Prior knowledge:
Elements: E1 3-9, H1 21-33, E2 34-42, H2 48-54, E3 59-63, H3 71-84, E4 91-93
Parallel strand pairs: 1-2, 1-4, 2-3
Amino acid sequence: MTLSRLLVFIERLPDGTGITSASAELLAGARSLADHVDAVAAGPVGGLDEEIGRFGASSLFITQVPSDLLAAPVLASAIAAASQLGEPPEAILLPQS
């Protein structure tokens, strides 16, 4: 069964220069599960858009929720943005590292 859309929460490296290996693995795996993979990261994201694109994300939602908060406010903001585009995600994947 292929899903229509997945949302992957992006976990950054502590220095903010890239994404964790867990996030990269989730993005790559999500492409085999869904037709469309979105990613969400707390802004500012610098050059992360290019990096997550290499791992299979079609879209990046950048939220203005501070990244030091729990994931729930960041995800809520991304789900709201995706829903406004007309198609909310069928599942959300979160890395754990």
